[in-house]
Amino acid sequence: MNNMRATPAMNDRTPLQTETTVPARACCRLCDTVLRHIFVDLGMSPLCESYVSDEQLNAMEPFYPLCVYVCENCFLVQLQQYVTPETIFSDYAYFSSYSDSWLRHVSNYVDTMVERFGYNDRSFVVELASNDGYLLQYFVKRGIPSLGIEPAANVADVAVQKGVPTLVKFFGVRTAREVASQGKQADLIIANNALAQVPDLNDFVGGMKILLRPRGVVTVEFPHLMRLMEENQFDTIYHEHFSYFSFLTAEKIFAAHGLTLFDVDEIPTHGGSLRIYARHAEEESIPVGKRVTELREREIAAGFTRIGHYRNFSEKVKETKRKLLDFLIQAKREGKSVAGYGAPGKGNTLLNYCGVRTDFLDYTVDRNVHKQGKFLPGTHIPIFHPDRIRETKPDYVLILPWNLKDEIRQQMAYVHEWGGKLVVPIPEVEILS
Ligand SMILES: [Zn+2]
Questions:
Q1: Average pLDDT for residues 65-72, to the nearest whole number?
Q2: pLDDT tens across 214-225, in order?
Q3: Picking from 93-97, 144-148, 228-232, 340-344, which range would have the lowest pLDDT averaged per residue?
Q4: pLDDT for position 433
Q5: What is the CB neighbour count within 10 angstroms for residue 333?
Q6: How far apart are alpha carbons 148 and 162 in whole angstroms?
Q7: Which of 8, 38, 143, 381 has its CA 20 to 30 A from that of 280?
Q8: Where are the alpha helices (DSSP H) in 58-172?
Q9: What DSSP designation does 286 have?
Q10: How far is the CA of 201 from the centre of ligand 1 (A)?
Q11: Distance 317 CA to ligand 1 centre (A)
Q12: Residue 242 · residue 79 · CB < 8 Å
């Protein structure tokens, strides 16, 4: 077996590696400790947004390990980076403004922030990963000077058309210095669901420190690791999300860059998220609120400072897989038909991990016209228009975007007309009445 031992050439990049892969180096993205503990291993999986067209069906498809580690030193839960951010974001297909509920969420956020911190036409607001201007448009409407920083040129163009000034760049210390040197430090820096996709966390948060005015505020939203673990949301793990944060770990990252978390909101988005508020460590006139201490204590009590707590998660995930397969095998033995609803990224993690293909799930449907006519990555389950469900009358409809369960339950109530049933896979298989 020793003939696979590294030759001098294999110590460097082998000829097979392309610019989209990085050599395996299992060290913590935050503190550089060697990663020795697996949080959960979801096997090999394709990139969850790489939907397959008809012509690509017979071509090779790249799969990457979806193995998540936890750092024993700082407890950052993380994936190694297999694909460069340039590959993911240069022509990004995700436009935030497509979701009405998300727009309502950020419009409320803008109202709350203006009321709480009194921003006006002399303030300056910067959003990192500002996408298509979905959020900053509400500041612009109020006449509050704003700047978006967004690496994907195609979505940034849409923002500019809306009247949201946008810089097409990756954010980090360098970009922060460039903007700050023009006398443009920010009263408010916003980063929503961006932190998970940042390969160099120290550079990103270090940039915030430079860009922030003395009495300025940073707000950052990210899915809460505590909720991911409690509610078994392992399917929200994708290659594109490199890091998963507890409040404690987020606090450590910000503290390392001279930023103190002084408040936190627990919000329902993405299955349960946190919105943290940071200020310069020196600005002690802004006191640290009760909610910070309360959440910190709750996480410590739940075990987030003990490696064993993280290592237990794996077994829960395996049990979920067994339960989903039990249900599907039973349904098939009884001669029942099963279709899917939705083609979200999380569905792809779930189906690839569980090995569910057209042998169990005949097809899925999605309202997004760009996905219709394509196939799910890896599993090659075809995606149709939602009308297909009415036409084929399946016995079960498996709801893949379980976070929208209530909304979909209402929309799909008509499956009862032929005795069909709706099923959710997470936190565990449940047949909805
Ligand atoms: Zn670490």
A1: 95
A2: 999 999 999 999
A3: 93-97
A4: 77
A5: 8
A6: 12
A7: 143
A8: 85-89, 100-117, 136-141, 153-161
A9: S
A10: 11
A11: 23
A12: yes
Q: Given pLDDT bands bounded at 50, 70 and 90, which one contains residue 5?
A: very low
Taking the centre of ligand 1 as the mean of its atom positions, its distance from the CA of residue 9, in whole angstroms, is 30
pLDDT at 1: 36
d(CA 343, CA 340): 8
* Ligand 1 center to 253 CA (angstroms): 10
Ligand 1: centre distance to CA 238 (Å): 20
What's the gap in Å between 407 CA and the centre of ligand 1?
A: 39
The rounded distance, in Å, linking the Cα atoms of 228 and 244 is 9
Distance 34 CA to ligand 1 centre (A): 8
Ligand 1 centroid–CA 77 distance in Å is: 9
Confidence (pLDDT) at 271: 86
What is the C-alpha separation between 63 and 54, in angstroms, rounded? 19
Residue type at 165 in one-letter notation? P
Which of 7-21, 61-75, 366-380 has the least mean pLDDT? 7-21
Helices (H), 43-150: 85-89, 100-117, 136-141
Average pLDDT of span 359-370: 94
Angle 171-153-21 (CA atoms, 0-180°, nearest 5)?
Answer: 65
- Helical residues (DSSP H) of 182-275, grouped into ranges: 201-211, 225-230, 247-256
Measured in Å, residue 355 CA sits from the centre of ligand 1 at 32
Predicted TM-score (pTM) of the model is: 0.88
| CB contact at 8 A, 415 and 389 | yes
Helix (H, G, I), strand (E, B) or coil at 187: strand
pLDDT of residue 82: 74
- Nearest Cα neighbor of 283 from 117, 43, 46 is 117
For the beta carbon of residue 114, count every other beta carbon within 10 angstroms.
Answer: 18
For residue 190, what are the CA distances in angstroms to 111, 124, 273, 277, 280?
Answer: 14, 11, 15, 10, 15
Cα distances (angstroms) measured from residue 307 to each of 22, 40, 76: 27, 13, 11
Cis peptide before 427 (omega within 30 of 0): yes
**Is there a contact between 204 and 171 (Cβ–Cβ < 8 Å)?**
yes
Residue 23 DSSP label: -
Distance from residue 221's CA to the centre of ligand 1 (Å): 21
Q: Find the 189 Cα to ligand 1 centroid distance in Å.
A: 25
Tokens 């369960």 locate to: 405
